[in-house]
Amino acid sequence: MIIVMSTGATEKQIKSVIDKVHSYGLRTHPIYGVRKTVIGVIGDNKTVVVESMSGMPGVESIIPILQPYKFAGREAHPDDSVIELDGVRIGGREVVVIAGPCAVEGREQLMGIARRVKKSGASLLRGGAYKPRTSPYSFQGLGEEALKLLAEAREETGLLVITEVTDPRNVDLVGQYADILQVGARNMQNFVLLTEVGMSGHPVMLKRGPSSTITDLLLAAEYVIIEGNRDIILCERGITTFESYTRNTLDLSAVPAIKHVSHLPVVVDPSHATGKSHLVEPMCLAAIASGADGLMVEVHPDPDQALCDGPQALTLDGFDRMMDKIKAIADIVGREI
Amino acid sequence: MIIVMSTGATEKQIKSVIDKVHSYGLRTHPIYGVRKTVIGVIGDNKTVVVESMSGMPGVESIIPILQPYKFAGREAHPDDSVIELDGVRIGGREVVVIAGPCAVEGREQLMGIARRVKKSGASLLRGGAYKPRTSPYSFQGLGEEALKLLAEAREETGLLVITEVTDPRNVDLVGQYADILQVGARNMQNFVLLTEVGMSGHPVMLKRGPSSTITDLLLAAEYVIIEGNRDIILCERGITTFESYTRNTLDLSAVPAIKHVSHLPVVVDPSHATGKSHLVEPMCLAAIASGADGLMVEVHPDPDQALCDGPQALTLDGFDRMMDKIKAIADIVGREI
Amino acid sequence: MIIVMSTGATEKQIKSVIDKVHSYGLRTHPIYGVRKTVIGVIGDNKTVVVESMSGMPGVESIIPILQPYKFAGREAHPDDSVIELDGVRIGGREVVVIAGPCAVEGREQLMGIARRVKKSGASLLRGGAYKPRTSPYSFQGLGEEALKLLAEAREETGLLVITEVTDPRNVDLVGQYADILQVGARNMQNFVLLTEVGMSGHPVMLKRGPSSTITDLLLAAEYVIIEGNRDIILCERGITTFESYTRNTLDLSAVPAIKHVSHLPVVVDPSHATGKSHLVEPMCLAAIASGADGLMVEVHPDPDQALCDGPQALTLDGFDRMMDKIKAIADIVGREI
Amino acid sequence: MIIVMSTGATEKQIKSVIDKVHSYGLRTHPIYGVRKTVIGVIGDNKTVVVESMSGMPGVESIIPILQPYKFAGREAHPDDSVIELDGVRIGGREVVVIAGPCAVEGREQLMGIARRVKKSGASLLRGGAYKPRTSPYSFQGLGEEALKLLAEAREETGLLVITEVTDPRNVDLVGQYADILQVGARNMQNFVLLTEVGMSGHPVMLKRGPSSTITDLLLAAEYVIIEGNRDIILCERGITTFESYTRNTLDLSAVPAIKHVSHLPVVVDPSHATGKSHLVEPMCLAAIASGADGLMVEVHPDPDQALCDGPQALTLDGFDRMMDKIKAIADIVGREI
């Protein structure tokens, strides 16, 4: 931690800051520059120090040097984390594809999609049972009925199941049916939910919040990890910007950026990010080319009839075509599918 | 709802879209322009229609005409909503000031602040019992112990109490101690929590999410209203932008904008928005000048020692000075305090 | 400047960075922390150092300590700058109001507005002669004819004239007619134009670019200052965000923020920021309450007929009503008009 | 154009709006909905109509239906535009790679890079002669001397030359040396410069402004086209967002989005977008996978010594490695290099 004193800071103010640091059991190392004094703080910095001291007289700013997360960072775990689950490996050499409808609408719809995406090379089935929707008047999901259908689809196809949990009281219930619990973008900083999925023992996929930095995302992962759950998959799904052609702006440079600072696997969801099916394939290809460990893609046999987010779904044929190209690109970047 | 067909849309595509609209029991009104055809849709539009049809062949875009919220809008309720609570009126001619520490740290701290802000003209006491923090290593609040202290402070000072609820399982508990339940910015789209506070019977203060539009905020309010709870106070507390001098960018034009489209009261929280105490007073004055129905301000007797967000807290003297100016400005804009 | 070495940086890498710094004639001051080494750099840091060294092996990041601007900052000039111009003082105790049409449309329009705003208390007349428009199909201004009309209006009313210059080749021409040269938001980083107005000898109003930070704005001012022109007025006119209700998001906390770090006067333009006339008065009041040194407001006798930005113009009566309140608020914050 | 009347709009207000539209020589087509009236406007809508009428009493909003650009859109030119220049085709089946230093620093540096990137498959040489820099204290380029070196490098290697022009007075000069004129991101809405390069007869590369939407970019292209110059290459180079790990956020979904609405070629500049060399290769691969027509990449033999933007430059070896992968990915998406 570096404390930057303002240009006019008095010796007394500097001394007072140094004394305060010492009172926390930390050591100081002042540097008297030409125009400013900065004070290096040495020791295992407590966050609270940063927070409370920046208002002291003469302090211009406080600059943290260490990353605010501990276990989610590569410094704590230099090698890539690989999550192994019933023969599916996430974060290793293999690229995983998660596919399925936005929302589970019924048995026929789900089974049809599940069989087809399995055949095309997907390893996991997605499908919303509880849908967090901006409007209370939008379709909110079939709830437990959907969970049962997902489990049935797994039984038949062998696809693992991932579905979103939105309520801390439902974590156990969802965990009975799903292999991986998804925390949605809007809940990325729902710390109560993060703690609950952290205690669940299930792998967790954590979607990046629409106004969350990479650091915020890793701090959210940290909430899960400190409950003892290290099986976390991060998901880039677009951030909020001024551009309105797409629903969100897919931040693909976050993929190599996150992999640089963290050991956790990163998948990309181009369906929610773009909101437009004609952008999904190009962004799937780009995601794998950028180094993503996997994709999450919405697929619907008849997008015009979908109860949720039809415009962003690939058709079953569109999914097949995309998968062929994905396999070729994975090979070029040293991955396989 | 207006369906815009793309320039090259065929007659067959146009007919197919019209048929689809009719299948929903809605009427159509096509306009054949010089270069494009648009189809007006008449009837009580179902959201799902908008969602599912935008992917149909030949459809370029779908433009909603009606606001997506019903009860939160001024069309449903032309007059300002006023929330009356033990003699405090929010949304009326009176400007309300909510003041207190970021987090409740102990009896002495809380009582000292409560007595003082009461004396200076505050009507409500704020104080975090459950603190949602970006980092799991930051102070998370004292929980129920803090709730008891808040209730004690109300007992002594007569200030009403507002505090944040972060867990749907805690809504009842918090409601036993607090007068108004606060839903924090990070939980603005935690729909499970919105539903729960909607059913609680308590007035709710809903903070705008950092990447939420005004429309998103009103849709979040709608989640509370449809549970039968119309006592909602909206709070502008800054949005996420590229500017990093302030923690968030306080969007003060949202105040008259929200009041133009909605009947709900709007308060402003300059402390969280700016994150810097030297910006708090100017932004408090500006908020009242812009037409806000109230303020939420963090106050701490000794900001350097605060366990949470010290740098953004006003001192007790600073709060007094701010209140004097607020009273004068309220008068100019036809309000009182 | 602080150079942060990554956790795994070798002694050799550290030495190599230190040697590089010394080769620039700067001194180093390393701090060996528990997990990381940081190197304080002492001396008059050259920007190029920061830029070139951050890619060296073992370097995690480089953190500048000094502000990147010199003359625009308060450290170089602790007192507020006051620009005096024919009896009008900008940046002093007086609040200045700049009013007029978006674009000069003709003699009758301009004279009518000029007489009226003069009577209501404005000190400067605005009016676009050269309009930078997003679309080439929008009205682009009357050019020199408009400049002549502005000069004529000054002659008659005594109002000083401010108008935008968009072309470095036109700086002399515009300077023959106008008292203050305006550099528009889209040209804030048109460094060729900044240099030219810097050399012109005329006071300059510099509007903040829609994606420019406060620091970027002050660096743009620095381009003008280093040409020897210190008469600069900064203008907050909204930044680009995701909120689409308003055209831009007026960043009013930038007003006290800029005044904290810089000595230059700051005016606010709520017309362009909001794009909606019903938001203009509240934001004018809020701007003065936040500490702005002045306002720039669009006024039109008949907004429905305006050739440019009618929806954001105040009517003449609306301007009068606003001015009455502005005077009262100025008084509360220790200013006058 | 659709004019949406507010819920309470009176018949008189509706009539008055209709009359106003007729006065512009346009036809109207009102739709009386359940809760609102909307008025379709038919004819070749003048921009000014949209602008002036949205403030009329009873008008809630005005929604344009036609794209605001004419010649830059695919409706005007359904096939992809291909720019042919001395054997280099941009926008066709071939993917073009533009490589070179951020700034021309001297003969040896430039020639060394030019020979090497030519050998690795680049078709165009980039190199800044006039550098628009945020700070006036950063290196501003060698000016005409740099232009001469670029021309010399073309002579020797056969690479075409692209370089930025920042001053309308320099367009002729730069055009004497360069094959393609680049308009930088900060100048994307410098309409004076756009007009000048439009008249130059040289192909133009137009970089997207950091807060410009896709529509804004196409309107900027329109400024060039209406001067008779249709040889325009668009360049995505990152937009301004809240994420600070990267310098800008590369908006790769803009590539297929632009190609959907426009016929103009799109290249991607990952160097400026990310600002970090370790992100450049992944983003180059992703750009080609997303359908970009080319890349613009900064290369430097010794990034630590670069006078400008060293941290984002690839080394010569890094460039070679990237090119090998690019060729393989181009093949998968049906392109070649």
Could you explain the architecture of this structure?
- 4 copies of one chain form a homotetramer.
- With 337 residues, chain A is of the alpha/beta class.
- Chain A has 2 domains: 2-63, Phospho-2-dehydro-3-deoxyheptonate aldolase, domain 1 (Alpha-Beta Plaits, 2-Layer Sandwich), CATH 3.30.70.1140; 83-332, TIM Barrel.
- Chain A has 11 helices and 14 strands.
- Chain A has helices spanning 11-23, 47-53, 107-120, 144-157, 171-177, 191-199, 214-225, 254-261, 270-274, 277-289, 316-332, and strands at 2-5, 27-32, 37-42, 59-63, 83-85, 88-90, 96-100, 124-126, 160-164, 180-183, 204-207, 232-236, 266-268, 294-298.
- In chain A, the strands form 3 sheets. Chain A has an 8-stranded parallel barrel, surrounded by 7 helices. A 4-stranded antiparallel sheet of chain A has the order 2-3-1-4, with helices on one face.
- In chain A, α6 packs across α7 and α10 (277-289) packs parallel to α11.
- Chains A and B meet through α2 and α7 of A and α2 and α7 of B.
| Structural class label of chain A | alpha/beta
Cα(first) to Cα(last) distance of chain A is: 43 Å
**Helical stretch tally of chain A:** 11
Give the SSE order of chain A as H and E letters.
EHEEHEEEEHEHEHEHEHEHEHHEH
Q: Largest interface, per-chain counts?
A: A-B, 51 and 51 residues
Q: How would you sum up the global shape of chain A?
A: elongated
Return the average pLDDT of chain A rounded to an integer: 94
Just give the CATH class of the largest domain in chain A: Alpha Beta
Q: CATH H-level name of the largest domain in chain A... which superfamily?
A: Aldolase class I
- How much strand of chain A? 15-25%
| Uncertain spans of chain A | none
How are the strands of the largest sheet of chain A arranged? 7-8-9-10-11-12-13-14
Assembly state (oligomeric):
homotetramer
User: How can the largest sheet of chain A be summarized?
Assistant: 8 strands, parallel, barrel
Q: Count up the domains of chain A.
A: 2
